[in-house]
Amino acid sequence: MLAVSLTFLAAAFILGPELLSRWVLGLVVPQRSLSQNRGEQVTRAIVWALVPLAVVVLWVRVRHVLGMWGGWLDVEVAASGLYSGSYFDAHRVEFYRSLIAVCGMAWSLLWRLYLIVIAAAALIDWAILRYRWLRNALKPRWAKTALATLILPRVSEWYVLLSDMLLPTEDVMLEVDVLTKNGTLYQGGVQDRMIAPDGELLSITLADPRRFLREEFHREKEEDVNAPTEYFWRHIPGKLFVVLGSDIASVNVRYPPRQAASPALARPDLSETDLTTIRNLLAKLKPGE
Amino acid sequence: MNGREIEHLLSLMDENITSGRASLRSEILSYFQDHESQVLAELRSAHRVAVPTSAGEVNIKLSDLQALIA
Question: Model pTM greater than 0.80?
Answer without folding.
Answer: no
